[in-house]
Amino acid sequence: MDFIETQEQLRALYGTPHDVAIRKQMARLDPHAKGFLARSPFVMIGSQDREGHADVTPKGDRPGFVQVLDDTTLAIPDRPGNNRLDTWKNVVDNPAVGLLFMIPGMNETLRINGTGRLTADADLCARLGMNGRPARAVLVVAVAEVYMHCAKAYIRSELWKPETWPDRADLPTLGEILRDQLAMAETPEALDTRLAEGYARTLW
């Protein structure tokens, strides 16, 4: 199998991008980007460690949980999780981040690239808290690139069409998956119950 190894090979295969695809990239948040962020309950954060090992992690909360501090700065609160800290460890070593924001039912997405720094500033964590609990930490992102991404991937995948979704009952539960992958002695039902109890206690 031959692989594409140079920028020239890549461009020869795909050709020149449309002028709009180039010009749509902005260096700051405009009113449309701010409006999208105010309605988005979900973001995927891409990061890399200093050796280039990549990670993508989801972050979600009520719409608008990611706040705009100014035209070139975002604040993403962290909530209780599994404490692996994959993304946060990457950001400490390599601040480059790529963000993909989604709004359920909307086929277009908002992409933001920039650099991130993690803070446990008490005032900011309290400001971005939920249900009386401050954020565990906050990722403050300096925006470098902002642009809307077209709908093709969502149209092809029919992501937001419930009639195309698989029956959840046909898929294994997380308890079943963990039992099999980790050879755990607990039953899947017991694991699923424990997971559900943990979710109820530690969402915020």
UniProtKB/TrEMBL annotation:
Residues 29-150 form the Pyridoxamine 5'-phosphate oxidase N-terminal domain. It comes from the Bacteria. Gene3D superfamilies: Electron Transport, Fmn-binding Protein, Chain A. Pfam families: PNPOx_N. This is Pyridoxamine 5'-phosphate oxidase family protein. InterPro entries: Pyridox_Oxase_FMN-dep, Pyridox_Oxase_N, Split_barrel_FMN-bd. PANTHER family: FAD-BINDING, PUTATIVE (AFU_ORTHOLOGUE AFUA_6G07600)-RELATED.
